[in-house]
Amino acid sequence: MAEIKRKGARSAKDIPATILEQLNRGRIETVNLTEWLAVDQRILLENLLEEKGRTSYLAPVLETIEQLKKQTVNTINEAIGKGLYRVVSQAGDSHFLEEIATHPSDLVRCWATYYIASDKNHSVEEVLELIKPFAADKHFGVREISWLSVRKLISADISESIKILSEWTKSNDENVRRFASEATRPRGVWCEHIDALKQQPELGLPILEPLRSDKAKYVQDSVGNWLNDASKSQPKFVMELCERWRKESPCRETDYIIKKALRTIENKT
């Protein structure tokens, strides 16, 4: 039986106890940010490992969490994913990744992205290919964490990453196209900046050009934000690019992107 769609509570105190229990047991997905923030990832981890018969993994991963200087939903999420990779790889457990990558809980699937990003035996191309299903995930949280999990890897080899991700802009899936843009934003959100793109945003053109008139607002927002990021360090580049796009691509989709791209520049004038 398909799960009945629900709107989700607006505040944590309004989440029904039965819903919170199911979330902490990994039985259902979160439906909004309020629920996403309310899940106790330690409890979820314990329930997951008990369900999968891997309780021996619990203590080392919890220790990883306790060592965090700052404990937030995102840092705990990352710590669990990386911690699981360490203990699972030491145990030689070849089936665990598949089990969490397809788990009903969106937060467990988020852990899987950090697990994948922790494996240094893969090339950038291999890691991104493994991350692609998460970039296309139906859940907003998994899609966000998917690019966050590989952000450092992308930044460390920006030329190769852009080459690979430029092919993603051809995808029929707007979530995959959006990943290509969002993962390479010069300043990004909740993450370290990519200095190479702050100083040389033209390096991102192989991703930006194919998306300049994308039909999906989800993609348009990301491209506009990408260029707005770039405008804070290279305003001339952004203004010239937007002017060229305005002439070469006169449509409402491009106009929308340009408006978002120039908002910081226009606020200063």
UniProtKB/TrEMBL annotation:
InterPro entries: ARM-type_fold, DNA_alkylation
Top-level taxonomic group: Bacteria
Name assigned to this protein: 3-methyladenine DNA glycosylase AlkC
Cross-referenced Pfam families: DNA_alkylation
